[in-house]
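User: Can you fold this complex?
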Amino acid sequence: MCGIVGYIGKKEAFPIIIKGLKWLEYRGYDSAGVALLNGSLEVYKKKGKVIDLEEFASEKNNGGSLGIGHTRWATHGEPNDENAHPHVSMEGMFTLVHNGIIENYAELKEDLIKHGYRFNSETDTEVLANLVEYFYKQSSEINSETAVQLALSKVVGAYGIAVLCSEEKDKMVVARKGSPLVVGLGNKEYFVASDAAPIAEFTSQVVYLNDEDIAVITRNSFTLKNVQNTPVSLKISNLDLEIGELDKGEYEHFMLKEIYEQPKTIEETFRGRLRHDQSEIVLGGLINIFPKIEKAERIIIIGCGTSWHAALIGEYMLEEYAQIPVEVEYASEFRYRKPVLGENDVVILISQSGETADTLAALELAKSKGATVLGICNVVGSTLARETDAGVYTHAGIEIGVASTKAFTAQVTVLTMFALKMAKARKKIDTEEYQMLVKELSEIPEKGRLILENNENIKTIAEKYKDAINALYLGRGYLFPVALEGALKLKEISYIHAEGYAAGEMKHGPIALVDDNLPVVVVAPKDDYYEKIVSNIQEVKARKGNVIAIVTEGDVVLKEMANDIIEIPDSHPAVAPLLSVIPLQMLAYHIALMRGCNVDQPRNLAKSVTVE
Ligand code: F6R
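Assistant: Here's the predicted assembly.
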């Protein structure tokens, strides 16, 4: 949440910062701001999107080759111009952008008020700017990095910050604890950002800051120390990231583009891993550690939101095929419970961003208990990718739409490969079944393309249900998590209240909701539960509910029974989630669009949830 960009070098900073903020806008889009230090300090900030800031500041004095910028997801104080970052300290010596939460800000603020400080905003960030200034003014011996270090030593909470000091005009200080920051190293120039996307076009040499690192950057030098003032050695990483342009191409929205990319991204996910001869599945990131993983006594899969739904599918697959006990946990619950786990457990953390605060806290907890921790993650070089013992990248490419689509199908693809690999290693699956499932998985992209051709039909269905107030999503077995995911997609982008349920649970409560106003989306392709889900549909129909059924091509029974059907190609039940989720994503997209919602940037949400 919140995106930070900084530049110091010889180029014009303003366009680099604005472009970088556009890359990071998925992290927050309440307001945006930029500060440029070029002789004088110029700060421009605006409620609204980065484009509003760009328009506003384009007319102004925006020259200079040192600057910081921010796109905000509000925590303290409503989104308005005053609360937008950067924040300037009372005497104008320090300007700061911040991602995270200063938990003890009230206490620090009270102390600063006693020392005569006044505040213009309701933010915790302005407190930090003033605290840095306060320390800076204590002695002429104290430079800006020491002032930052002293201030951070008083802070409880999470931060990624970039700081400019008006009295030290060739320097930027950046620091992190809990909120990601990466520094790109150029030729006498440095790029700072919350993730690597804004940096990738300029350099492939990066340094990922670790918790409590403070980087002091001038045009000619880059040094690291920590909050305890101890020097830290530099670890330069090679950034292997192909990002292309921040471009929707022929599509109206990033979400639609990402839905349509799925046949390709699923292929990318299994490229080089799923062998055409259907022999060994190769997960390079796990090779060294696999002998240990395959002997695990239990697997715990942890994630949030959509990633948690992917985890549920992983549980079903691993238990069915590898016959290993699996538990699935919400990261936000796991981290505060007293979970029983130890050395023989394998914990898999799933996260698109690799920066979700709760998932990272769960990772630390699992590590502290001695479990083997693995990551399934999309963002290369993210904290999750760096902190786990080993892992698998999903290779879905950058996901910009706040509602996750292609990352989900990539996560499920990785979990499917992992489950099959485990099943084979543990000798729980015979060769014939294994090869059949590998083949089924490899056919998903082609079948996915066929579903996308159904767009007009899905649009027509969306038109019928766009004014619904509530919606129910039902599924069984592998398709229960798909129902949950379909409901999440609808609620987050269209603001229609939607609930996902295991279809068998319907009679235990949710059936009370059914009347002739309720759309009930039933994920019902042919599988072992087909007869049962047909009965569930009968029960809904008997109460005049409107059934939209996702069915296997050629299903005549449900064609008669349901109000609307969306056909998907026949596939094995274990890989059916990868297909059946696509029409649900499209349905949510069209309904949201018809309701006039901002599909790519839904209200109140941000993509990378780096605060609790
Ligand atoms: C829903 C969505 C969120 C994320 C969740 C976890 O469309 O995007 O529910 O899935 O915030 O994010 P990651 O996977 O980055 O940890």
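The chain has a mean pLDDT of 94. Residues 250-442 form a domain with the Rossmann fold fold (CATH 3.40.50.10490).
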